Amino acid sequence: MLKKPETLFVLGYMLLPLFALISAIVGLTMILGGNRIAGIIVLIVVTQVFTFGAFFALRKRKAVLLQEPDAGQ
């Protein structure tokens, strides 16, 4: 499943950055709402996990695309 460039494209450019943005918003609202420790944990840990996941998916997609023989040419 994670060897298809289409799946890695969706993960790297759409889903994981969206989840990172949503978790950053949730973390900031938790901090502003009074849950400072939990908000900082969400803001730092969870957001970074989604961000690095997106970078990993994009790097893996690039590697998969470079390995594939050119079928259309």
Element order: H for helix, E for strand: HH
Give the overall silhouette: rod-shaped
- The beta-strand count equals 0
Average pLDDT rating = 91
Summarize the biggest pleated sheet. none
The rounded Rg comes to 16 Å
State the share of residues found in helices, binned by percent.
Answer: over 70%
**Distance between the first and last residues' Cα:** 25 Å
- The structural domain count equals 1
Structural summary, described in words:
This protein is mostly helical. The chain is rod-shaped, with a radius of gyration of 16 Å. It has one domain (9-66). It is 84% helix and 0% strand. The longest helix has 32 residues, at 36-67. The model has no long low-confidence stretch (mean pLDDT 91). Helix 1 runs antiparallel to helix 2.
List the helices and strands and how they pair.
Blueprint: H1 5-33, H2 36-67
Helix pairs in contact: 1-2
